[in-house]
Amino acid sequence: LTCGQHLHFEVRAVGDVVVNPYGWIAPTMTVDPWYLESNEQSYNLWATRPALISTADQYPGAGDTGLPEPVVDQISLLIDDGSPDFSSEGDCFTDGTGSQSYNNQYHYAPVDGEESCWAQWLIEPDAFSPPGYYDLYAHIPDHNNASLHSLYTIAHHGQTSQAHVVQLAYPNPEHSAWAYLGRYQFAMNSTTTEYVRLDDDMPGFEDPANANRIVLADAICLVPAQTWQLPAQTLYFSWAEAVIMAGVTYNNEDIVAYDPAAGTWSLYFDGSDVGLADVNVDAFALLANGDILLSVDEPVEDLNGLDKADDADVIRFIPTSLGQNTAGSFTLYLSAATFGLEDPINGLDRDIDAISFIPGGELLISTTNDVADLFVGYFADEDLVYWDPWLFIPNWMPYFDGSDVGLSDNSEDVNGAWIDLDMGGIYLTTTGNFAV
Known about the structure:
The chain is mainly β and 436 residues long. It has one helix and 33 strands.
């Protein structure tokens, strides 16, 4: 159906503040422009960013730039309108036939009829449909007087959801007769009533253009959902002491790569080759250009390009050539003294033991001990904090409070962190056993 309409939407955070759902990825220590506009942070809410172009078949993007609509190729449960699990309430639904319908049979009812009635497909558990997530589809016969706006109600796993369909649009040259109604979790047990219901009218959604049209009830089907997963990503580790992986010894100044697809380990960064022998790399972050941010557990001196660095500093390793991390130079990335992490007067140890970045691009850290300082901030060793340069007095601000989720014992100091900038997850390691 080509009629010029299109959808606008917005996302609001707590406090009814509009946020930018496309996120913000920028160079380190630069600020999200949406933050300047609204004092709110951007969040990338897309698993795959949709296309910003128009096409006949968008769900929600075009070509390979958006999320593809799930394919109806492994139907687990199909309920036709001739099945005992199909029923209708009221006298408004009439039998119809046609080669474009499933099994040449369908039911139809006038929109906004005098009676309130509906068609229903009851979802009964069977041996082929275990509990879990399913992609739900409705078969829409080809009819030139089909509804411009039809309401499906889905009862699933103790919840009720709705799907709105322009039935007149199906089928079309770009799409089959199966309309995708969404992904839902189904309990598939005898104690939970689950169904799909199609109403003949839509209170609150009246549209004069929909008058004198009909709603079409044919078949529905459930397809086991393939869980959306990120491609297998290489994982990077550095340990507090030497370890042996697949017969190879890696030291605590090294960064080691693990390829989950191949199940192999390899040396990514050899600290001893660049002046960090016998120094524990206790925090690191990999930058997109191939540079590596590091923090070590004790002061170091005489590095190539850097005279000395404290254990609360963050230093930057710049490889001589991309991917060749056996030679290169160092620069100071974050000075502990400048950012309030050095306190020689009181003898406080504020060693950094975790580095990452928040979606706004600001540096995120965790420290080996608690910090309570009027001029620095207040945070514990199980917390993650980021430097906010846009405050009236720039300071470290809380990002993740470990004690709020049960990380409060001495063994639960966060000593490793990675923020998934695309999906928003926080990945952590702790110094010892944890219970949350």
